[in-house]
Structure formats: structure tokens, C-alpha cells
Amino acid sequence: MFEPGRIAQSLLRGIRLRCPRCGHAPIFRGWFVLLARCPLCGLAFEREPGYFVGAMYVNYAATVLLALPGYFVLDHWAGLSLGRQLLLWGAFCVIFPLWFYRYSKSLWLAMDYFFDPGEPS
Q1: What is the pLDDT of residues 1-18, one digit of tens each?
Q2: Is position 99 within any domain?
Q3: What is the pLDDT of residues 68-106, one digit of tens each?
Q4: Is the pLDDT reported for residue 52 higher than 90?
Q5: pLDDT score of 116
Q6: DSSP, residue by residue, the chain
Q7: In a domain, 9, yes or no
Q8: Does a structural domain hold residue 121?
């Protein structure tokens, strides 16, 4: 059954980089270190190898969905040359995925927990 409140809660917890189950504990220590488990409720964050491939797709999709329209918007309104556009969006496509890395993993965990709230084996 689709529950809009529950999906909004999952996405909000993912955006806030919080545990998908309890919503209180952070899931990262530092910038790139994902905790193995939630310190409050014990939900496992680290899963089997290959689990976060979906998070890479989320990161890639977010990058493309920002860069592609951004190119056309700047081309139309700012009239930047092709060289400047390539330099700008090339840098964006390197920097943005590094910044969005934590969010893509967190959103992937949140959506997984939304669809399957059971403890992973």
C-alpha cells in the first residue's frame, strides 16, 4: 500500500543523512565513512558487496539531470562559448558527484528501507 507520509519520511531521513529506521542517528562518520550499524536502533547500513551499485546510479542520474538542462539554460540565456561551457560542466561533473556521494548512499538506504523494512540477512 502506498503511503505518501511514509515515503516523505523516508526521503527526508535520506536527505538529512539519518538512519532510515529511527531517523535520529547519523549514518556517516566524517565525509566518506559509512557506519556499519545504527548506534541507536542497530539497523545494518553496510550490506553485501554490490549493494550500493544503485546508489551510483542515483548519483549519476542526479549529475546528468542537473548538468544537461544546465548546459542548455546557460547556452540560451548566458550565451557562453562551447569551450567555457565544457570547462564549467566538466568541473561540475567531477565535483558534484563527490559532494552528492553521501546523499546518494543515504537515499538508497532510505528507499530500500521504505520498500523492505525487514532486517537484512
Answers
A1: 567 788 899 899 999 999
A2: yes
A3: 999 999 988 988 888 999 999 999 999 999 999 999 999
A4: yes
A5: 82
A6: ---HHHHHHHHHHHHTTB-TTTS-SBSEETTTEE-SB-TTT--B---STTTTHHHHHHHHHHHHHHHHHHHHHHHHHT---HHHHHHHHHHHHHHHHHHHHHHHHHHHHHHHHHH--SPP-
A7: yes
A8: no
How far, in Å, are 35, 37, 53, 94 from residue 48 at the CA level?
14, 13, 11, 27
Q: In angstroms, rounded to a whole number, what is the distance separating the alpha carbons of residues 119 and 113?
A: 9
| Grid-cell match 564549467, residue found | 88
Asked, for residue 120, whether it belongs to a domain, the answer is no
- Residue 73 CA to residue 61 CA, distance in Å, equals 18
Angle at 43 between CA 40 and CA 44, to 5 degrees: 130
Residue 39 corresponds to which cell in the numbers above? Answer: 548506534
Number of separate domains in the chain: 1
Range of the domain at 90: 4-115
Copy the grid coordinates of residue 20.
532510515
CA neighbours closer than 13 Å in the CB half-sphere of residue 44: 8
